[in-house]
Amino acid sequence: MRTEDVLAAIDTGLWRWDNAAGTVAFDAEAARLVGLPAEEVTLTESAARSRFHPVDWNEIHGIVQLAVAEGTLAEARLRVMSEDGRQVLRTVRSRSRPFGADGDYQLIGTIQEVAESPPGTAARTPVTGDWRRSREAFLLDAGRALAEARSTAEVLRVAASLSMPGFSPDGLAVFGVAGDRLTTIGHHGHKPGDEQPFSNMPLDTDYPAAEVVRTGRAIYLPTPEEYRRRFPATWPLAERFGRRSWAFLPLIVAGRTMGAWMAGFAHPVAFTPDERSVLTTVARMLAQALARAGVEESERELSAGLQRSMLPTLGPDIPGMKVAARYVPTGGGLQVGGDWYDMIALPGGRFALVIGDVQGHDVRAAGLMGQLRIALRAYASEGHRPDAVLSRASRFLHGITDSYAPEDHSSPRFATCLYLEVDPADGTVELARAGHPEPAVRMPDGTVLVRTTAGGLPLGIDPDTDYPTTRLALEPGETLMVCTDGLIETGGHDLDSGWSRLRTIMESHRELDLEKLADELVQAVHGPPSHHTTGPLSDRREDDIAVLLLSRETTATEVVAVRSTALTVAQAEPERIAGTRRQLRELLHDWADADQVDSAVLMVSEMVTNVLVHTDGDALLTARATGPVGKRRLRVEVTDISDELPHKRRPGEMASSGRGLLLMEMLAHEWGVDPRGQGKSIWFELCEDAPPVTYEGV
């Protein structure tokens, strides 16, 4: 015997309520119990609702929500109504269990006829999840959802989705106050344009929301007759919506009525003390949420306006070059900070690029950033060289931060900065660095190298700090990238691992589109929407980000199969010899013969060390690889200012020096020493497609 037959024998039917599809399916016995022909049928939710008393059907929503949250049975008594809705045919008991997640569940259960309630007892007697328990669960959920809303639009969406236990409204409207007039902030359950008659309404109008704002007291209208009697002038405006009950409640924050909330019901609501208590509590939470959202939106607008006023546009196009930039504020507070970038036009067609980071992520950091940016523009416009621009900026910042009171524990503050002066005619770049991350260059074949440059202390620490100038040439097809440390170190990275992450992004970018590359660099840290919206991604921002990209365009006749690097090792910085070895390995990362790479690194280390040991000047290293992959030729030169030429020696077995030229003779395919008028250049070459050098007889 089928289960359906057994249940029918005991006058019990089965029903399935698909909340996502908005349908309710009844078997034959369940259809009979709800006053339909005794056959299986599937109704829309509205058609099924018409078979029950509206108060009972509305109450079951709260019971179901609690059952979904707790994973328990939902039980309730429902009155089955006649088709005209005037007569109670019978009372049925529903026992159902929800399956699925919130908002996308199915309710499967039984319907069984029960005896009528004795006279004088309440018609609504749910067995599980009584009114008070449902109300408390609803208010907890509503409070949490409204507290998490961060904008007026989010607050209105949450308010529209609230399902009140026993009497959910089908229409909502939130009114605000502008001077002596009522405004519509938002609404739900209405068609576009329905709010027009209620917008910009004078506060002395005979309308419930206007009276609520004037008096600060709630108005409950349980019947259309009551509405028409109390507010005859505006009743025609509300009549066309066909609702049966209305509640208008004040939105009060800090003792001030900031607006009104209207909840309209398609079924009669008596507005019992419990129902009024729920509505009043929701109105208070809604008012607080709207006030918080308004403050946050004002702060976001203020911060966005502040940053827009301080950050420049990149100006007109530069012949032969392209520039792109991005700024992303940190996720907390006002979303303002001390990172900035700038582009400054200089005489003779040259221009300067500046990027920097003032310590801190607050309003004071943003203010200092604005002052420092103006000072840098002034010094650059006066025609000073990069080193002089940074020296003057350091003295300026030290002066304005040192003037703060000693009890201000946040002062003095410093700033890192990178200043570049670019000549578009030949791609020459002169730069000075003040404690800032070094620039990186993407070569035409996709290889990315961090350009090692000399630098000084951050601005504002020592007013007498010197900032040496580094000169490099941006070849056609190369892209220079400079950024603040927020792009490198966000996500728990240090400088090395952070640069490795950025190098992967830059090397995988095959299009010559700087705007796309700038977006990809930011997305590698925060995800696609984080620098356009608020929300979970923006909350994970750990530091401000500024990034500048500069690319030199190529022409059809230019040869782009060139990979080069240059750096200086000063007498006072012998530790940078390790950096030269690392830079050369990065330059030759895809060289066919690993032994040749080791040989080149060994020879470079020997050549630079000899300059530091045997001369009084600095060593200038240039390395250049030309030709197609697999057939490239590497030429490395180390230049110094000493006129003394090296000569080969025959060191003994225990000698600690004298092997430099012997190593080059054994390991290089070609090598030599060239006098340069003042100083000399020692060079060697390696051919990628040449057979390895043999060491017999060594």
TrEMBL record:
InterPro entries: Bact_Sigma-Reg (IPR052016), GAF (IPR003018), GAF-like_dom_sf (IPR029016), HATPase_C_sf (IPR036890), HATPase_dom (IPR003594), PAS (IPR000014), PAS-like_dom_sf (IPR035965), PPM-type-like_dom_sf (IPR036457). SUPFAM superfamilies: GAF domain-like, PP2C-like, PYP-like sensor domain (PAS domain). GO terms for molecular function: ATP binding; kinase activity; metal ion binding; protein serine/threonine phosphatase activity. Residues 1-71 form the PAS domain. Keywords: ATP-binding, Hydrolase, Kinase, Magnesium, Manganese, Metal-binding, Nucleotide-binding, Phosphoprotein, Protein phosphatase, Transferase. It holds the Pfam family HATPase_c_2. It catalyses: O-phospho-L-seryl-[protein] + H2O = L-seryl-[protein] + phosphate. The keyword Transcription regulation does not apply. It comes from the Bacteria. It is an enzyme of class 3 (hydrolase). The keyword Hydrolase applies. This is protein-serine/threonine phosphatase.
